[in-house]
Amino acid sequence: MRRGFAAALVTLALLLAGCAPGPEQPAPSPTEATDPPADLPAADDAVTALVAALNARDVSKLPMVRNPADAQAEFETVFAGMDEIYPTVERTAITYEDPDGALATLTMTYQLGKDGWTYDSTARLRHIEGVWRVDWSPQLLHPQLTSDSRLRHTTEEARRGPINDNTGLALVEQRSLYEVGIDKGAVIEADQATAAADLATLLQVDVAAFQKKVAANGPKAFVIAATLRQEDIPSTVVDIPGSHVREITAVVGPTDSFAAPLLGTVGHPTQEMIDKSDGALTPADIVGLSGLQSRYDEQLRGVPSVRVDVVGRKAAAGASAAPFDAFPVFQQDASIGTGIQLSLDRDLQAKAEEVLSTQTGLATLVVVDVATGGILAAAQSPSGGTFPYATYGKYAPGSTFKAVTALAMLRGGVTPTSTVKCPSSLKVGSHTFGNYSGYPSSALGSVTLTDAFKYSCNTAFAGSSVSGDQLHAAAGSLGVGTDYDAGFTSYFGTVQPGNAIDLAASKIGQGQVTMSPLGMAAVAASVGSGKTTIPWLVKDKQAASTAAPLTAAEATALQSMMTATVDSGTGKSLKGIMTGAKTGTAEWGKAGAQQTHAWMIAYNSTYAVSAFVEVGDSGGTTAAPLIVSLFS
User: 421 and 558 share a domain?
Assistant: First the structure.
């Protein structure tokens, strides 16, 4: 008996081994075939319709064995917790079962995580009354689903990488903030308006608006009045009935406005960003929206934790849900984002912002490390908002651009002591150029190039023989006039003069030539360092100059003229603070209602700086005081 039973087992094992599928090419079972039985049509069209319906998320119109409305309801239940994430469905194979069945293998592909999620499921069809009908079951959507379960998507953002200052300390990082508001469930209705008014007054927010907001929310809502740093929460907030403080996580800098145009912001992606991400982003994600946070978002954001679990369904009204142990079917672990290192000096940036805080219009300060070319500060006045005017604004640079024209003249054989002509007016074509009001009459006529530079003679530079190509080349050697990808939002100016009038105007920083405050800081840094300098902000993202380098002899000549400007020219107010400088004004606006940009660029052994005031008087009286305040 035992030997016979053992022999039967061996025989059964051999039979099973003989029909087992191979490792690479599964074979159909004896009851399945890849072609339909002779008396049945192929199920291809029915499977194609099923795939199209699944991709359209509407299976209610398909021929089914049972009620298609129930199938549609189950489809919606299964995906209700998937945050609008659905698979793309494709058919891969069809096999047939005797006497009237077909099995379609469906490949489900989700845009989830870094690499996506793909699996196969099986759809069963039956040929009934001359029609292939879907024999619906939840396993069609995922093999491990049952009539008691559904899918649930959850995600948790990785800890965002920091943006560090030039000492390696975090300027912007993920920190705790606190939402302060009224918990309506903790205060009686009659006292809610008073509590809202008291909290709004304490936090210095609009009282009427907050009272209206509290009244409009549900009876147990937590209504936020303000989001604060811990040190900014008044201790007396606990004395207000219904007040509540809730901790949240946010990506913040030293202050809300600190270097905001450079650093940028984070938040939920826009619909446009989601559409362009090919499924990589969802409305729940946190991403960089502007500035460096946007440019380096992938690096800073890291990889979020993404899970899809099979969980129990909610019970119908009046019923209790059966116990269900949830389990994961897809999981991507989080990885912390990688930070970036900046050249920015925390204290100098804060000081520059403080200096500009009282400016009523737009003004900027850009400071560059003369030795390294790193941007130490790039600040702008409050009216600039978060647009990066300091690094990306486009303005006529006025007479500060004479440093570029002077270099082109030096390359043409002129020296700082050479005699140049400085007439009171100069006619070029139909346009007459003159000097600024208050230009010293003693510096008219035949003067040295240094005198023309330090007193800022327009006619001497506009009337020079420098060509457009020579002007562009000189600009390149001083770090401007060429579009570089410097690793942040930056503009290094455009030097492309057109006709003779435009060329003459460009030589004195008017006409079609435009520069950013960053670009003019690059000119000052190039002169001060004695080499072509393209300022950088993000470590290891420095742009390389494509222009002819500034030579030592050229730098020495330019330094002598900029030093003379501080010693006895229009930059005298910077004496003792800066070694060399150049003032500038530029007219802009409609004819008859023109206003004046005021500029000052300067350098010493440590810093190169540009100061710009959009609507000012002159470089010496409007822009220079900003530099004095910054370094005093």
Answer: yes
